[in-house]
């Protein structure tokens, strides 16, 4: 085993503590990556709260972090696509069966045998619990590491690997582009990248937010404007206007007001808070509207997104912090006090 150090949840609290960790010895197709920057995703908060609520995980270790960039420090003997010193990026999937129809179609994120998640997943070979990127080293199968294109800042690019790809795939699949109108609900980590992508793809893009003070940011990101989600008049004026509504809201919420923004035959893509939802079918019936969801991305789409970001100069708006301030970052994210992604600098773990 290899030794490293990371930020692990301790006991029933919601506090992460600096903890020595073990990584597996390299398999033939593994890379060892020195993790330099890891984004703080709202899903990390959900995972931490689920432990706090006693979700019955019997003390399974939790080290969050599933959007990171770093440098290859060692390669297994069968690795051909990477060499020591390469800049790489890793997202929230680190393995899949490779054989099912979804994997063969390049949708490893929908693997029938379920993809191996970057943290709180189960390794398909040795059954160990995966520990995430809030740590100084990660060992990853080469297929699930991506070359970080030259020109992308490694700290600001880290959030592309979860927040970015999660909104990129549905935007592409739903045809966002010239002649379409896109609304992004919730201007946070996912939301601000969705705005950048939709604008760069050529769609007329708007933000729907309960935070009117984000209007200037929305325009700076390229949106036409911001619809205040708590203002019934503004919602009524925006009724039936959007071919695609990308819902990145991190809390359970009524889908009705957002479905009413969708145009005839348009789609509400519900990506944020996952779990059971109640839908008034009349909100779908009137306008033949569609409700969809998605998560993460396959390998081809992830690589294509990174190329698109390099071409268009797209990265996240970040607030970098030394990793020792991880608990402060999580507290502020919980309070919606970030514009628009915390990124941990793991170099303080050396
Ligand atoms: N499908 C997937 O694979 C996937 C991947 C990554 C993340 N996620 C999920 O996506 C969600 C967003 O993640 P994130 O990292 O972008 O979070 P985030 O940075 O905290 O942004 C979430 C945004 O949602 C809005 N919001 C928060 N609470 C709200 C409430 N009670 N009512 C209405 N709006 C609210 C806020 O935007 P405004 O201030 O603009 O209203 C906030 O900025 C999380 O639930 C996360 O777990 C899913
Ligand atoms: Zn995430
Ligand atoms: Zn599969």
UniProtKB/TrEMBL annotation:
EC numbers on record: 1.1.1.2
Record flagged with keyword Oxidoreductase: yes
Necessary cofactors: Zn(2+)
Origin superkingdom: Bacteria
Catalytic activity entry: a primary alcohol + NADP(+) = an aldehyde + NADPH + H(+)
GO molecular function, one term: oxidoreductase activity
Protein name in the entry: alcohol dehydrogenase (NADP(+))
């Amino acid at each position: 085993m290899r030794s490293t150090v990371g930020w692990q949840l301790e006991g029933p609290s919601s506090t992460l503590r600096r903890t020595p960790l073990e990584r597996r010895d390299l398999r033939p197709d593994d890379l060892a990556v020195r993790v330099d920057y890891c984004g703080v995703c709202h899903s990390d908060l959900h995972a931490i709260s689920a432990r706090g609520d006693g979700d019955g995980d019997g003390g399974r270790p939790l080290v969050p972090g599933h959007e990171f960039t770093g440098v290859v420090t060692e390669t297994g003997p069968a690795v051909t696509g990477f060499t020591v010193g390469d800049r790489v990026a890793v997202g929230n999937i680190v393995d899949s069966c490779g054989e099912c129809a979804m994997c063969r179609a390049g949708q490893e994120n929908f693997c029938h045998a379920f993809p191996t998640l970057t943290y709180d997943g189960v390794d398909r070979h040795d059954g160990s619990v995966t520990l995430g990127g809030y740590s100084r080293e990660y060992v990853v199968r080469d297929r699930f590491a991506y070359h970080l294109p030259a020109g992308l800042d490694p700290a600001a690019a880290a959030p592309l690997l979860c927040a970015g790809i999660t909104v990129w795939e549905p935007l592409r699949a739903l045809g966002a582009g010239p002649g379409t109108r896109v609304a992004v609900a919730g201007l946070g980590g996912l939301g601000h990248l969705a705005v950048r992508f939709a604008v760069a793809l050529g769609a007329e893009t708007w933000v729907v937010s309960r935070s009117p003070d984000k209007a200037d940011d929305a325009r700076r990101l390229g949106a036409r404007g911001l619809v205040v989600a708590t203002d019934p008049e503004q919602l009524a004026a925006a009724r039936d206007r959007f071919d695609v509504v990308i819902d990145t809201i991190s809390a359970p919420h009524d889908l009705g007001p957002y479905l009413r923004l969708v145009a005839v035959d348009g789609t509400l893509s519900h990506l944020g808070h996952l779990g059971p939802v109640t839908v008034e079918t009349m909100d779908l019936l009137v306008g033949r509207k569609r409700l969809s969801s998605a998560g993460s991305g396959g390998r081809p789409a992830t690589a294509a997104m990174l190329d698109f970001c390099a071409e268009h100069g797209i990265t996240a708006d970040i607030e970098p912090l030394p990793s020792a301030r991880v608990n402060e970052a999580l507290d502020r994210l919980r309070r919606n006090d970030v514009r628009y992604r915390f990124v941990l600098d793991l170099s303080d773990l050396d």
